[in-house]
Amino acid sequence: MALLRKDLLLERRAPESVPAMLLFSLTTFVLFHFGLGRDEVSGTLAAGVLLVTLLFSAILGINRLFVSEHEEGGFDAVLMAPIDRTAFFVAKAAALFVFLVLVEVVALFGFSILLLGPSPWPALPGLAVVLALLDIALAVVGTLVSALAIQTRARDLIVPLIGLPLLVPALIAAARACAPLFEAGGAQAPPGKWLLILGLYDLVFGLLAYAVFEFLLED
Amino acid sequence: MDAAPAIELRGVGRRYGERLALADVSVSVPTGATLVVFGPNGAGKSTLLRLLATLLRPHAGEARVLGEPLPRRDWAVRGRIGLLAHEALLYRDLSARENLRFHARLHKLPERRVEELLDQAELRGRANDPVRTLSRGLLQRVAVCRTVLHEPELLLLDEPRANLDPAASALIEPLIGRASGRTRIVTSHDPAGGLAEADIALGLRGGRTELLAPADEVDTTAIEALYR
What we know:
Oligomer: heterodimer
Radius of gyration of chain B: 17 Å
Low-confidence stretches of chain A: none
Helix content of chain A: over 70%
Distance between the termini of chain B: 34 Å
Helix content of chain B: 25-40%
Number of strands of chain B: 10
Mean pLDDT of chain B: 93
Order of helices and strands of chain A: HHHHHHHHH
Low-confidence stretches of chain B: none
Strand order of the largest sheet of chain B: 6-7-8-3-9-10
Radius of gyration of chain A: 18 Å
Number of strands of chain A: 0
Strand content of chain A: under 5%
Number of helices of chain A: 9
Shape of chain B: globular
Structural class of chain B: alpha/beta
Strand content of chain B: 25-35%
């Protein structure tokens, strides 16, 4: 909890990740609005535009996840503390999860104004479930990749080059689960199969992260 | 002074890629003693401290810190070591109090320990300012507080008095000086000052041991020779 509190306090004190992710998301929606030449999107296209935008904005947050430790030297002090390094992973992933939720609350509002055809309200409960599962995937994989990348000089390249391919299955599952929620004829329940796949993805990568995170922090 | 060594290194080496940072370093430091490490920039002093702090793995030799072999049981000594490095290891956007409270929570210490140290280092007046606004000297005092917050058995001090005026040096003396009673590994570029607080002197050059002797058997010219 101390690590999570510290990350949230740092972001509140000197906001970096959340404003950048939010601005990126809203700008991308504007670009889609004009690039597609359409005022409204629905169904599969709406799900794709929303989730790809959120995925790319998450990359910004993932890139900066360990920057405070790395640039300010806090990494060494935390690594020397008598704490389970898995707790360090959980705290970082939880911080990223919180940032993603904050961004999505505002970004969804922008998406519904700029692009989404059908009313977003009937879709909200289902969308909350899909986004929660996707955010867990982004937080788990993002934290792993960020911990790997922070040790390298090419941090900004490593995160998208490794993170995006790893997240493709999660994006596919989330987009398939999301599409019925944005149908022009009215929101339908997200297919259980794709929610299950997304949940399994979270579980598998959660266990993988648990197993390897400590090794990523070794010199 | 306890007879059991707090630190025992035998033929320890460490590389960064192709570059040899430490080679065949052997030294034994009794509990409660002070080892002062001299050497020019790039001699391997900071690498030695990071290795003892469990932040780097030795690539050769055997290292035992506080009775535990590294890196096999490094988890057993984390929390028993205090590292005062070149960087303050503090979050710039947090205040001194917030930084220390964060570390107190990591070490499961009561918040009154933070207040005690803020008083001792005479930082109370600036305790709520972000540390990025502090002068180098004040920042070093906060870093000293972070280093000793959890009352470590072993202190690893990389030029601890850099950026401190004489009054500030005197202020932190009870915390990290000989009076603290802890085993200390101190790096220094000051032959006379370093020898004055050393029980054992270690001189490094190019990662290799050039000098290892009880401090009272070493004179400053031997230390100065390391820098030529």
